[in-house]
Amino acid sequence: MKFKHPALLLFIAGVVHCANAHAYTFDASMLGDAAKGVDMSLFNQGVQQPGTYRVDVMVNGKRVDTRDVVFKLEKDGQGTPVLAPCLTVSQLSRYGVKTEDYPQLWKAAKTPDECADLTAIPQAKAVLDINNQQLQLSIPQVALRPEFKGIAPEALWDDGIPAFLMNYSARTTQTDYKMDMERRDNSSWVQLQPGINIGAWRVRNATSWQRSGQLSGKWQAAYTYAERGLYSLKSRLTLGQKTSQGEIFDSVPFTGVMLASDDNMVPYSERQFAPVVRGIARTQARVEVKQNGYTIYNTTVAPGPFALRELSVTDSSGDLHVTVWEADGSTQMFVVPYQTPAIALHQGYLKYSLLAGRYRSSDSATDKAQIAQATLMYGLPWNLTAYGGIQSATHYQAALLGLGGSLGRWGSLSVDGSDTHSQRQGEAVQQGASWRLRYSNQLTATGTNFFLTRWQYASQGYNTLSDVLDSYRHDGNRLWSWRENLQPSSRTTLMLSQSWGRHLGNLSLTGSRTDWRNRPGHDDSYGLSWGTSIGGGSLSLNWNQNRTLWRNGAHRKENITSLWFSMPLRCWTGNNVSASWQMTSPSHGGQTQQVGVNGEAFSQQLDWEVRQSYRADAPPGGGNNSALHLAWNGAYGLLGGDYSYSRAMRQMGVNIAGGIVIHHHGVTLGQPLQGSVALVEAPGASGVPVGGWPGVKTDFRGDTTVGQPERLSGEYSQSRSVATTG
């Protein structure tokens, strides 16, 4: 029942609660009509009246809900009357309880909408704190699903509202050439990404239009597909034109059907490799986990065993130092060793993809061969990850198996091998094999990171799926290149980064080499980057070299070096304004120097930049170039413009971008839609910032859109009406 005078009852309950050390009794006649139907003897025993109370539902000290809860009068083990909340199994599941692990919850509740028996969970307690209007639920941590950061509870997911949505972007540029023969070139580009949401299905398309110079405009469709999420499988079903996942095999464009795991439905901390921190709390305790001196996790657990699986580790190495702070002041401390394998999944996480269809090349003359592919990755115990896959197509078959593992402080290693059977158009059948080794290590003490990948092609006949299928053309022409017949014998890539602290900066080295079979020479690519902070500014040096094998056996080598410096001007301007200088020097001449000033204004909604550049070897008068760039991040979209000028040419450009959602309330315009989309409704509250992104505000109706709602926190989703639209 609900009470006519809840304030009076709350006052009486508060007095009883504060004076429960003394035996007080209440004279019901003093309350007059307000006492009718109220059992005053309960107040004399320090118990509130049964009925419906609006309370904040707290699970282990954290608010998870605010609602009207029905409280029934029951007796505890000592026969003392207590108020027990009526919580359904579905509500407990929504609050994070592993209801599937406790079938006794259903003993009293024949349906999910009836009261569950909370005593089915050992050491679980429910206490009504009437003074603070809170229902305090104490649930052992092992009975709770991990509270994954960065993703909303699955109970909050839905298929969203029916809607039409579209991203759009457009740019037009006018260039006037002044040297030699004067002429004007106009170019325009438009991209549309329309979509429709009907129930669980999403239909998506990407179409672009381009016109340059005197050529007529041309439309081109990049893809059209329909897909839906399968929440129980944490997967997505796709029908139409898509590209396969590229974690095991190279990505392949196809037209057909694909069923694959959807990482967006799984918290990053669950799918990445991470150790499980287990322990037992004697009291209501706080658990703190540190890595490399930084706190990466903090939570409160109820008395009893706990298992922390939701750790979001910050580095791929560094032991985890765990401290359990008990309520009585005592502590427990222990260490969990940690190192991420080169290929790693969280233990027990399964990732897969299945596809069947036809090959979809960007060249319309390429045959649309039938293809099928299956891949699987699984996180094993003992810090291991197993993975593999098969590919099958007309004229092509391949299989791959691999294993990744942690070597502790010696780093991480993964090895896989693949075998192919293929036949290019007009050539004999080829058999090939390859091995791939990936090694990574992070030395926390020295700030050194090292990554190495080595491909070894054991035989000349190794080909990828695209290598083979691209050779089959129905126009009778073969696009031949001398490099097409080059067979790699090995390929190596490496990356080394070194941190020397705030003043000496960070150094990064990258390199790759490809050796060719039956031909002397190789292709090389190297890069060096160093950056540091100086007096609030930034300084960076970059160098790159590419060495490419040519047909006559010679090599073409290109070097480019750049130096960049940026310094904030807050001490003079008082706002977010910076000055920069950059020098770029290619090996074949054309050194360019550029100075600029950039900043933000109007709460980061306006970005602006002014640049002046000079090229030493340019024609007379053509070496100086001035440029201005403006960009506005508005509530209804993005708008940008740029202007550049030199004696040789003048260029002006304008670009716009945004997103449109047509729904049951009307049309909502906003910034480009990213990933899944939510419609935020705050009726009558126009111009309210949402999500912390520059320019994202509610419109005149109080509506706007935000991207990736599954990443919104529970509190955010409760404070706004969120409906998924993509």
UniProtKB/TrEMBL annotation:
Q: Does the keyword Iron apply?
A: no
**Signal peptide annotation:** 1-23
Q: Which GO terms describe its cellular component?
A: cell outer membrane
Q: Could you tell me the superkingdom of the organism this chain comes from?
A: Bacteria
- Which residues does UniProt call coiled coil? none
The way it spans or sits in the membrane comes to: Multi-pass membrane protein
GO process annotations (BP): pilus assembly
**So where does this one cross the membrane?**
none
Record's keyword annotation contains Manganese:
no
Q: Which Pfam families does this chain map to?
A: PapC_N, Usher
Polar residues bias located where? Answer: 715-726
The PapC N-terminal domain covers which part of the protein? Answer: 25-171
Q: What is its main location?
A: membrane
A single GO molecular-function term is: fimbrial usher porin activity
**InterPro entries (UniProt xref):** Fimb_usher, FimD_plug_dom, PapC_N, PapC_N_sf
Q: Which UniProt keywords apply?
A: Cell outer membrane, Fimbrium biogenesis, Membrane, Signal, Transmembrane, Transmembrane beta strand, Transport
Gene3D superfamilies, A to Z: 2.60.40.3110, 3.10.20.410, Outer membrane usher protein FimD, plug domain (2.60.40.2610)
Chain spans, region Disordered:
699-726
Q: Where in the cell is it found?
A: Cell outer membrane
Family, as annotated? Belongs to the fimbrial export usher family.
Protein name in UniProt: Pilin outer membrane usher protein SafC
Q: Which organism is it from?
A: Salmonella sp. NCTC 6947
